# Entry
Amino acid sequence: MVRRRFTRKELQHDRLVDTVSLVSSHLQRYRRFYLFALTLAVAVAAVLAIATVRRSRDRAEASRLLARARTLGQLVEVYENYPATPAAPLALMTAAAHFFRDGSHEQALAAYRAFLDRYPEHSAAPFAALGTAYSLEAMGDLEAAGEAFRRAAGYADASTAPEAAYGLGRVHLQLDRPDQARTILEELARRYPWSLYSRRARERLERLDPGAPPPLPPIGFEEPPVD
# Structure
């Protein structure tokens, strides 16, 4: 009897049939599990889509309200009702500035501190640190103000650093610590020669030590030409 040899094509077909049969059997056996997994995946995708739409809607609405805000109440509404939007920290900072301008220094201090607690990495954090120091100084708590100005000056790369250093020197003068004030103001004048507060520091130093030579700027620094 002659044995029939199967061709490669027939063998591949048989393997395919076997694979399809196994997969079909597996799906039949675990169909409830896969149906549940598929339903769960669809539900999760729907929730994520709804959340994305809601976040986008909230951002747009918060930005609109912030642009139209004219009162403290409107600013607080943005901050409290839309805390997860980019508009919230801006609303809080603006509210703090309103409090300070209106002479409500304790409320300004609370708002600036709340900003630093909730948004420590925000680009406006150096301004909130500076606002904290100014609020404490306005309240007459000079020791705390000096420490706050020191922390604000610690944002060395921020545009507020020279102003914070000048505030620290000014507080030391108010506390009758001329030597400490002189050290800080001299460092300010050397480190930030381009700053308006460097000029103010030099003026303060001149009043402290009439006739003394001003601090030398860093090597390589040139005064900008006067138009």
